[in-house]
Amino acid sequence: MTGGCGGIGAAVCRYLADDGMNVVVVDLDQKRCDELAHSLSTKSIGLSINITNEKAVAEGVKKVVETFGTVNVLINVAGILSNNKIQETDVAEWNKVMAVNVTGTFLMTKFVVPHMVAQKWGRIVNLSSWAWKSGGLTAGTVYTTSKGSVTSFTFSVARQYADKGITCNAIAPCYVMSKMVSEQLTAKQRAELLEKIPVHRFCEPEEIAHCTRFLVHDMSGFITGEVLDVNAGFQMD
Length: 237
Description:
The protein is of the alpha/beta class and 237 residues long.
């Protein structure tokens, strides 16, 4: 569970633990990972991994397998936001956002999938965003591009492993009440958005956790390569 200490990540961790899963809380801060893991109702652990570093990911997945025997579910939530449009985005920012949002998702999946193939069962859920199909209402160019890449990556993985008992789906939320909304949008921007959002409220992290719980369930095995829109009616298709 990458991005495990964030608002969405922590909610997903709690929901999956409540369903009896042993959770590996992956984030950068080991102490925060441990604190959250110890608060869960199952045998869960915290693990600090820089998901943009291939060696760190390989070693982290190895440790998980040594602890639990295998990996059944991978939830890729870790991501960073940029609200800068193309002319305000420099190469350093572009590379940083793409590294976390796209490369991190790729690396975690690359090193987890072999264990799922070996057991002929697995569930992968990637966090995309409404930005990937809307072009980004407030989101910047590189964030929007990165989430489009996550969506395409989801399709690719779903196609490759559909006959291996592995599903790969994405959730595309819109304006979840997390730090991306509370700290990276101004009060004025939030007020304006509440007028534009059809249901006139922000999404709660627990609502994304509920969607994740559904996609990793045994009975969701016939759903793969799908993007679950959670956008309050902003876009219907």
